[in-house]
Design a protein that fits this description.
By secondary structure, the chain is of the alpha/beta class. It has nine helices and six strands, in the order βαααααβαβαβαβαβ.
């Protein structure tokens, strides 16, 4: 395990169970601007949200509203509130074994980063609700980079943050990117990460992940050490 020094994980669908929470929060949010539940418009919009899972949420909403920034911002704010309420209601859980697996990585001198299509307001609540604050080395939210996935910005920023004050800085060749969506895979490939590992615990299938560039596909993020060296 001398090669990989930083593992960069996605959040929803990869390290924490989604179980439809993103879609549920979206549908609650979209109803605030008059989209009716079970309407053809809601069905179409929900399908797009599923297809673009992993991408920055404000970008998704801007697409759905044809670039209308005011409406997109309204729905984005409502989405944040809805998702935070679901977390507070106890509907968010880590995938089984994630916390001990993070400890295993640290024991092998592999640092841990989290990147997400969520804004910082949601990421911080997720981290604190799972008591991960002390075991995650770097976190990057989509709201903190110029471009969300599939651009490589979050991966590169995670490396940049990790390298602050390091004597021997990391490069993308020292990194593995892990995620459950096609945009995770595309982001990892574009960053130059040595490994880009898909997990089938979330939004997209093995075939979709491979098509997007995954170097390996596993069922659970806790199996990561079986496919990297």
């Amino acid at each position: 395990m001398g090669l990989i020094k930083l593992a960069i994980f996605d959040v929803a669908g990869t390290t924490v169970k989604d179980d439809g929470l993103v879609l549920k929060a979206f549908q609650l949010a979209i109803s605030t601007v008059g989209v009716i539940s079970d309407s053809p418009e809601m069905v179409t919009m929900s399908a797009y949200v599923n297809a673009t899972m992993g991408e920055r949420k404000i970008d998704v909403f801007l697409h759905l509203f044809d670039g209308d920034r005011i409406k997109a911002d309204l729905v984005h704010d409502a989405f944040i509130s809805s998702y935070l309420n679901l977390i507070k209601a106890g509907e968010l859980e880590e995938f089984e074994g994630m916390t001990p697996f993070f400890a295993d990585l640290h024991a092998q001198n592999i640092a841990i980063a989290l990147t997400t299509g969520f804004p910082r307001e949601i990421l911080d609540v997720i981290i604190d609700s799972l008591n991960w604050r002390a075991i995650i080395d770097v976190t990057v939210a989509a709201s903190e980079v110029p471009h969300g996935r599939p651009a490589p910005d979050m991966v590169l920023k995670a490396i940049q943050i990790f390298n602050t004050d390091k004597v021997v800085p990391l490069t993308p060749a020292d990194v593995v990117v892990i995620g459950d969506t096609q945009s995770d895979m595309q982001s990892g490939i574009r960053s130059g990460a040595h490994y880009v590992v898909g997990v089938t615990s979330g939004a997209h299938t093995k075939e979709e992940l491979v098509a997007a560039g995954a170097t390996s596909v596993i069922e659970s993020a806790t199996q990561l050490l079986t496919v990297v060296h």
